[in-house]
Amino acid sequence: MFSSDEITVVILSLKVALLSTLLTIPLAIFLGWILATKKFTGKILIEGLINIPLVAPPVVTGYLLLVLLGKNGIVGHWLYSAFGIQLAFNFAALLIASMVVSLPLAVRNIKSSFELVDPDFARASGSLGASKISTFFRIYIPMALPGILSGAVLVFARSLGEFGATISFAGNIFGKTQTIALMVYSNMQIPGKELQVTRLVVFSIAISLLAIIASEYLQKKKKYLVR
Fold first, then answer.
1. In angstroms, rounded to a whole number, what is the distance separating the alpha carbons of residues 128 and 15?
2. CATH homologous superfamily of domain 4-225?
3. What is the distance between the alpha carbons of residues 197 and 203, in angstroms, rounded to a whole number?
4. In this structure, are residues 156 and 109 in contact, taking their beta carbons and an 8 Å threshold?
5. What pLDDT, on a 0 to 100 scale, did the predictor assign at position 50?
């Protein structure tokens, strides 16, 4: 059984993962659709910027967030001075870090789903008098839905396991920013905490395995749906 401290950390981690998923997916759908269906100058640059957290060390991503949004950061200093808003080392930082590192996974998955949608369906919808917005919600979204759901699963799992960007930008504060990964890291350094670490590791592996299985299932559904 989990201890009260472990339950606190698990609940916080699940809360962050869920909110991160709910906030990231709409943005990922928009970016994925734009990148899959539109041609414009600077498209490669935008894709590169979106995917930086996917290839850069997570600690580097956290450091960049701190430089940008920290209390003395480029944008963070203005937010704190003008509105008293502090985005670093609190729940907001935890959420932002999770969203930033998981966004590329969702965008890549959703973009590939939109690319599989036959443009003839959209053209047929337009020829029947449907607006672009109506076509988007009635054609693109339903046909890309398995890929969107797969992206959501990956965002949830990635947010649940985030470590590097979180510890750099949000810190490791119990009850406030300490997630499962951070508690595992902290307790690994304390003699006698092996059982607690094992429980959290097993829980994390189980969630990750379920996410992989769900993502693979949805990927197969995506390929079947667009045939």
1. 43
2. MetI-like (1.10.3720.10)
3. 10
4. no
5. 93
pLDDT for res 221: 66
Which tokens in the block code for residue 158? Answer: 């990635």
Token pair of 200 as six digits: 């959290």
In angstroms, rounded to a whole number, what is the distance separating the alpha carbons of residues 99 and 20? 5
The per-residue pLDDT for 227 is: 52
0.85 exceeded by the pTM? yes
pLDDT < 50 positions in the chain? none
Alpha-carbon gap, residue 24 to 46, rounded angstroms:
17
CA atoms within 13 A on the CB side of 88: 22
Distance CA 86, CA 80 (A): 6
- Conformational region of residue 192, where left means phi above 0, alpha means psi within -120 to 50, and beta covers everything else: left
Asked whether the beta carbons of 63 and 170 are under 8 A apart, the reply is no
